[in-house]
Write a structure and sequence with these properties.
The protein is α/β, with parallel strands linked by helices and about 300 residues long. The chain contains eleven helices and 13 strands. A six-stranded mixed beta sheet has the order 5-6-7-3-8-9, with helices on both faces. A four-stranded antiparallel beta sheet has the order 11-12-10-13, with helices on both faces. Strands 2-1-4 form a three-stranded antiparallel beta sheet, covered by helices on one side. A hairpin with a 2-residue loop joins strand 11 (about 245-250) and strand 12. The chain is globular and about 65 Å long.
Length: about 300
């Protein structure tokens, strides 16, 4: 039974669909045994990247390596990878129980007890055909598959779509509980950043098919800093720093800037009597991607 978490790496990874470039020159490492948040605006290339990692597509150029191997049409890496997309990857014209039984036979780490408990928690009627389920219920089936499969590399691509808040919370709690008991590499692509960022140990932000930010989640969060105070005092401290946003409130300025590890700006700002606040991951994401001016190109 394969249980060791799987690492992912890309080198110069490029994927084009005709005249559209979904990914361009992507160099990236996803740490084995961590929960990584994959963030990006619509069209940033997230789903394209995840399909390449899962071995569903071949790169136009460059390389993607899963556990050191090319995943495309690779039975070994695909056996250890579970990608759950928005639609849940189910047999739509068959009862839910048939989908669960198929994954039970396919995934060597499948936990039937966990699947059954999640069916109860989500109140899914497994006798119903998937095509007769609501969007949220279909997403719940996908969440059950992704968690119960316990694949060494588990990928959730917007799996929560359609779930109401209580069911999303049930999914998050089940994921964290099972991850603690059975560590594996988990990648979560999500637009609900404020809800899921507490789970992230690593963060990757894609923008227009390129890596905008990647690293330890706490380090990424610490890159953003908001200073509020007298405009003259704020400007004196900024120097040539990278400013994300700026607001002028009469004689008061509020500026969000990027910092680097070991930067003494917070201490100097407090000494100058400025108000110093951190920037949440969602706000930092918004500031960074808005400034980059990325636009939707192909898919999420």
């Amino acid at each position: 039974m394969t249980t060791a978490p799987i690492a992912v790496a890309t080198h110069g990874l490029t994927k084009r669909y005709g005249a559209t470039t979904a990914l361009e020159g992507l160099d990236l490492e996803i740490r084995a045994g961590a929960i990584t948040g994959l963030l990006g605006r619509n069209g940033a290339g997230k789903s394209t990247l995840l399909q390449l990692v899962a071995g569903f597509e071949r790169p136009t150029s460059g390389h993607v390596l899963v556990d050191g191997e090319d995943p495309f049409d690779n039975a070994l890496t695909m056996a250890g990878t579970q990608l759950v997309r928005e639609g849940g990857d189910t047999f739509t014209s068959e009862p839910v129980k048939d989908t669960l039984e198929w994954y039970r036979d396919l995934r060597e780490n499948w936990d039937a007890d966990l699947a059954a408990s999640l069916v109860d928690a989500f109140q899914v009627d497994t006798s119903q055909k998937v095509e007769n389920l609501s969007r949220g219920q279909t997403s719940m089936v996908g969440a059950i598959v992704g968690l119960a499969a316990r694949a060494p590399l588990t990928i959730f691509d917007e799996t929560y779509i359609g779930m109401d808040a209580p069911n999303r919370e049930t999914f998050y709690e089940a994921l964290l509980t099972d991850y603690a008991a059975h560590p594996r590499t988990i990648v979560i692509s999500s637009h609900l950043i404020s809800e899921v960022e507490r789970m992230f140990e690593e963060v990757v932000i894609l923008d227009a098919g390129r890596v905008l930010v990647a690293g330890d989640a706490d380090d990424v969060r610490s890159r953003g800093l908001t200073l509020t105070g007298r405009a003259a005092d704020v400007e004196r401290l900024l120097g040539a720093r990278d400013v994300l946003t700026r607001r002028e409130l009469g004689p008061t300025s509020q500026v969000t800037v990027l910092t680097s590890p070991g930067d003494d700006l917070p201490a100097r700002a407090r000494d100058a009597g400025l108000e110093v606040d951190g920037v949440g991951l969602q706000d930092l994401f918004v500031h960074l991607t808005r400034r980059s001016g990325s636009t939707a190109k192909d898919e999420s």
